[in-house]
Design brief:
single chain, 6-stranded antiparallel β-sheet, 20% helix
């Protein structure tokens, strides 16, 4: 894995040649599209994510946006590099319920430097209606070699 770029790894996940990260089992999402600097995740909220007021908890939006923005950055990284969020900001525009239906989380890389990178993201429905948007800053680091 250390010899592949972030984009190559994401393409292999999208094609089913590599497994999705365990987080995708907690909050179901899949890579719908991937290109250098841009990732589209497909997801659909379920009642298990409802808060006490009967709408999807904001943590769902945050997790999905954190994933799409981080993956957008990851798609710009060369072999042997990883990323992790150091700051994420999310704006909640309108509530999500099960009736909202399928959603797309769109992450776009804005800047990839030598130590940090930034991205923006948004969650929209099939008609393009905005539900949440945000930004992130990620720390870039060398992925340690696996112990064999």
């Amino acid at each position: 894995m250390r010899e592949k770029t972030g984009l190559q790894i994401l393409e292999a996940m999208q094609d089913g040649h590599l497994p999705l990260p365990p987080m995708a089992a907690v909050i179901p999402m899949r890579i719908a599209e991937v290109a250098f600097g841009r990732v589209f995740l497909a997801c659909e909220a379920a009642e298990q994510f409802y808060n006490a007021t009967g709408i999807v908890h904001g943590g769902y939006h945050l997790a999905v946006l954190d994933s799409c923005m981080g993956l957008a950055i990851y798609s710009t990284l060369g072999p042997g590099l990883g990323q992790t969020s150091i700051e994420t900001k999310v704006n909640f525009v309108r509530p999500v319920t099960v009736a909202t239906g399928p959603l797309r989380a769109i992450g776009t890389s804005l800047h990839t430097g030598s130590r940090t990178a930034t991205a923006e993201g948004k969650i929209v429905d099939a008609g393009g209606k905005l539900y949440a948007h945000g930004t992130t800053t990620c720390l870039l680091f060398p992925v340690p070699a696996e112990d064999r």
